[in-house]
Design brief:
- The structure is a single chain.
- The protein has a five-stranded antiparallel beta sheet.
- Helix 2 packs antiparallel against helix 3.
- It is an alpha+beta fold and 180 residues long.
- Helices cover 17% and strands 39% of the residues.
Length: 180
């Protein structure tokens, strides 16, 4: 797309990186990207650099077409912000048959959400507690994973699970309370 990009900008001064990219709509071209797709900005260090160095990666949050220039404008946001702004209906229950007949673990829910929203998982804590009924409407992917880990700790008084986004991957780990 290098030959059709008319402008790119980003702001990493706040807690969440945001940006925008505009591309010139070419006659007859149909672009197959939109809400949720990943945009990666790289810089090449000379003609022999095939991969380049990644400057940033963000997801398309919304799209509009400029009436005056015909450009397609895409507002971008960090992957974690995109996941927090996205909303979905979630239903994790015991199944009569199959893999989840005893319920879901928090890490199974995190893997399911990651697959649905196309993000990478790093190391996940695996609490043993099975969640038998977790239903939420209009909740973000981050909210449902947080709730899964919250429910997973209800019988483990000294444990708490913390979530972080590091190296482009969602990770969870045990955080012991009271210095344990």
């Amino acid at each position: 797309l290098d030959n059709v990009v008319t402008s790119v900008n980003w702001d990493d001064s706040a807690l969440v990186m945001t940006g925008a990219i505009a591309i010139k709509r070419m006659p007859g071209e149909k672009y197959q990207f939109g809400h949720g797709d990943m945009v990666v900005a790289t810089i090449k260090n000379g003609p022999d650099d095939k991969k380049g160095t990644v400057l940033w990666s963000m997801r398309i949050n919304d799209t509009d077409e400029s009436a005056s220039s015909g450009d397609l404008n895409f507002n971008l946001t960090s992957p974690i912000d995109f996941l927090q702004r996205s909303k979905d209906d979630w239903k994790f229950k015991k199944e009569k048959d199959g893999k989840h007949k005893d319920g879901w673990t928090a890490d199974e829910i995190a893997h399911y959400v990651a697959k649905k929203y196309d993000f990478k998982i790093g190391g996940l804590a695996s609490p043993p507690h099975k969640i038998t009924n977790l239903v939420k409407e209009n909740a973000s992917p981050i909210d449902i994973i947080t709730e899964a880990y919250t429910q997973a700790t209800k019988n483990e008084l000294k444990k708490k699970y913390v979530m972080e986004w590091r190296g482009g991957k969602l990770r969870t780990q045990i955080h012991h309370k009271n210095g344990d």
